[in-house]
Specification:
It is a single chain. With 393 residues, the chain is of the alpha+beta class. The protein is 36% helix and 19% strand. The strands form 4 sheets. Strands 3-4-5-12-6-7-8 form a 7-stranded mixed β-sheet. A 3-stranded antiparallel β-sheet has the order 10-9-11. Strand 3 and strand 4 form a beta hairpin. Helix 1 packs across helix 2 and helix 4 packs parallel to helix 5. It is globular and about 55 Å long. The N and C termini lie close together (5 Å).
Amino acid sequence: SFQTMIIKKEFNHTEEVAVSKKELRVFVLDCLDKVGCSPSHAQQLADILICSDYRGHYSHGLNRLNIYVEDVASGATAKDGEPVVLREKGATAWVDGANVLGPVVGNYCMKLAVKKAEQFGIGWVVVRNSNHFGIAGWYAQYAMERGMVGMAFTNTSPCVFPTRSAEKSLGSNPICMAAPAEKGDNFFLDMASTTVAYGKIEVAEKRGATRIPPGWGATADGIETTDPKVVLRGGGLQPLGGSEPTGGYKGTGLCMMVEILCGIMAGSAFGKSIRQWKTTETPADLGQCFIAIDPHCFAPGFEGRLQDFLDETRNLTPVDDSKPVLVSGDPERAHMLMCDDLDGIVYKKSQIKHLGDLAAKLGVKMCPTKILAEHAPGETSIDGNLTTTIKLQ
């Protein structure tokens, strides 16, 4: 059995608070109830938002709640209804999302894809008329927990400058794949096809950053910038790889590939025709794609081989001993570990502030935060990080 060092983030008392998952759920449901959202739809949205923050993807968690609330309140997203299969053939299905909340559409489609994979070895479902569906990883995880390799893709509002373009015409179109290894271990890739997600720049700015790394964003004219304010006020994202000399054309190609699997295949809005982010005048009409693959249709022993591959990769000699080699999903595992220790989800106080504003606006009770002891017994701080050894058998 191999041992892997995972650096667990240290809880920062001056800037951070913890909130129990139960309290968060009540808060999300209260907010959605105020705008008339169907209870079963609200539950599905609450699940994915909380999962996102638990995994450490704050850009897609409670940070986005106000946008879903606004979409439902304005009527841009339907309060109720169910997705409908438009066409079905063997392992495939084309679905109409009925303009309900994105997670409701995504759950419906991935369930269908898994059902087809159980029968045919693969399930491939494409949907039009959907909405912002949260983290793509949520759907891939559903398939993975049922022994499948899961993949999920979506198009998004145009926020990316294709290589050489002075105009934004692509979304930050995520690519996601989750695959099961042994004893709950897995490979879990969930990434934007931009260098970073838009929300990451928002979170950086909310935390007071005045500079972001090169390759993240561009000015309104498509010129690379390191100023988060310029990116968020009329600028946009760079494709994965940044500018042309560092391989941005590969990111542009990946953005387009995801769009072909989503908007083009689904017959939904695509590219420049997708409505602008945070606007509610028209339905979003997003296109999404969900794939489930049964690995047992191929060589036996998939999980064991994947485990060997993960262990081999994690046990490579690191360039810097304090930074072990990680595989996709390890940073999230480290974050979930910290949350488990605190029996809640950790937020920066600044991230919680806007939830208070939303609570006041809707007239709902704000979720209480936990005050925690300075250090749990036996914990020692090393360079601002708590080092926790997780045994991955």
